[in-house]
Amino acid sequence: MSHHWISLTLNGETIEAEVPANRLLSDFLRDQLALTGTKRGCETGVCGACSILIDGEVSKSCLSLAVQAHGKTITTVEGLAQGQALHVLQAAFMEHGGLQCGYCTPGFLIAAADLLSRNTSPDDAEIRKALSGNICRCTGYQGIVDAVRAAAENLNGT
Amino acid sequence: MRNLDYLEPESLDEALRMLADYGDEAAVFAGGTALLLAMRQRMLAPGIVVALGGLSALRGIGYTPEAGLRIGALSRHSEIARADIVREHYPVLAKVAAGLANPQVRNQGTIGGNLCYGDPATDPPSVLVALDAELEIAGRSGTRRVAMADFLVDYFTTALEPGEILTAIHLPPVTPGRVGHYKRHLRTPAEHRPVANVALTLTERGGLWDDVRLVIGAATPVAQSMARAAAALTGQAITLDLAAEAARIAAEDLTPVSDARGSAAFRRQVVRATVRRIVAEAAGLDWSEAAA
Ligand SMILES: Cc1cc2nc3c(=O)[nH]c(=O)nc-3n(C[C@H](O)[C@H](O)[C@H](O)COP(=O)(O)OP(=O)(O)OC[C@H]3O[C@@H](n4cnc5c(N)ncnc54)[C@H](O)[C@@H]3O)c2cc1C
Ligand code: FES
Ligand code: FES
């Protein structure tokens, strides 16, 4: 099997690592780098628990090989907070009941972060569309949509 | 997943040579969203993947009034959805790309991978047939062009020969009055893949429809052109009754798949309802109050 040296920017830091060709990006993050915020759910591209930003675009890390990350800029849920200060989305999820068990939450935060980076005042339909690649089995979604709307309003100072 | 060699050719020639050298052992790898699933489910087990990421010849989306649109096979769905030239000249294609799967898969999956996999439960094939697309395919002996309708052979089977690479999708230049419409039916809103979809293109002349293409996807093993239903809509004033009649003909002519996501009878009914609605909407009629 081929092994590859990859170099990427991960949560703001440049890292290098050696990966076997068949290692999934989600397994690389969790098992090799111990960044367990990114979850494995369905591992078939449906649930979105494994979502990360690749070059600023929301992507499912279970549908990608680690070697494909070479040269990319990646943000995982661990990269959202600034030190002890929660990301505005994280704070809004807490305040608006955007989670219960929390398993889906990293994926929703990342999908919502992608949305807010492109659209600072999304309406509810746009929020729901942006989150349509993510599944939550607990909240019933309303709290999640409320949280994303509140985060957007917070960013806009409205 | 089994052990794998991941090869990264830097040119189309090099990629074609690798595919020739390794034969059945090797598979082409674009975004990987379909292939990785198939490999993890052990439906496919290539020992070598030839990654196309470094081939600039397969990238980019360009339009000229003479040649029409060229979409590089490595274009991701999200890139097609937001490309200004696609939105301006072929808005129906931009709409399809913006609405298929989910945001993540649109950012990761390529149009080339979508077409070469030959999965019927997808969106682009029907609309590309209705837009008269041609596929540009490279092999060791040169490049050939295949009509989209001929590229789709059967369930998970395309006209690609072993060792060939899809390089681009071409659409003919836009002509005045030509418009496109698209509708997909999901079994539940949470499901990403369509159980049926309908693409409709036509040229409006003096309030009547000419050059009508009505193509069904996802409900059939490969996208199916509905010639009789299209003929019924040609040169006639479109009424709700005519929309219902065309829908009846399309449902009758359909060769539906039957699987866990929908029986043949169910798909036939979905196609019938969807055709009636898309025809009515294209003619500016409100189908919601009328009996089917
Ligand atoms: C959860 C989920 C939901 C989805 N929903 C939809 C949907 O609603 N509608 C829809 O249309 N699609 C849907 N898809 C399918 C998605 O569009 C495809 O998986 C994607 O476009 C495949 O592209 P890829 O680049 O990842 O292909 P890959 O996985 O890299 O390749 C797929 C196949 O094509 C071959 N191949 C790829 N590129 C070439 C080439 N240039 N020349 C020759 N062979 C090539 C590969 O060898 C492989 O056999 C969904 C997928 C997932 C995972
Ligand atoms: S674990 Fe990746 S989409 Fe479910
Ligand atoms: S909070 Fe439990 S799955 Fe979403």
Automatic annotation (TrEMBL), chain A:
N-terminal signal peptide: none
InterPro entries per the UniProt record, alphabetical: 2Fe-2S-bd (IPR002888), 2Fe-2S-bd_dom_sf (IPR036884), 2Fe-2S_ferredoxin-like_sf (IPR036010), 2Fe-2S_ferredoxin-type (IPR001041), 2Fe2S_fd_BS (IPR006058), Beta-grasp_dom_sf (IPR012675), Diverse_Oxidoreductases (IPR051452)
Keyword flag Metal-binding: yes
Span of domain 2Fe-2S ferredoxin-type: 4-80
Keyword list, A-Z: 2Fe-2S, Iron, Iron-sulfur, Metal-binding, Oxidoreductase
Pfam families xrefs: Fer2, Fer2_2
Protein's UniProt name: Oxidoreductase
Biological classification of the source: Bacteria, Pseudomonadati, Pseudomonadota, Alphaproteobacteria, Rhodobacterales
Automatic annotation (TrEMBL), chain B:
Domain FAD-binding PCMH-type: 1-176
InterPro entries cross-referenced by the UniProt entry: CO_DH_flav_C, CO_DH_flav_C_dom_sf, Diverse_Substr_Oxidored, FAD-bd_PCMH, FAD-bd_PCMH-like_sf, FAD-bd_PCMH_sub1, FAD-bd_PCMH_sub2, Mopterin_DH_FAD-bd
Pfam families registered for this protein in UniProt: CO_deh_flav_C (PF03450), FAD_binding_5 (PF00941)
Alphabetized Gene3D superfamilies for the sequence: 3.30.465.10, CO dehydrogenase flavoprotein, C-terminal domain, Uridine Diphospho-n-acetylenolpyruvylglucosamine Reductase, domain 2
Superkingdom in the source lineage: Bacteria
UniProt keywords, alphabetically: FAD, Flavoprotein, Oxidoreductase
Keyword Electron transport: no
Name listed for the protein in its UniProt record: Carbon monoxide dehydrogenase
Phylogenetic placement of the source organism: Bacteria, Pseudomonadati, Pseudomonadota, Alphaproteobacteria, Rhodobacterales
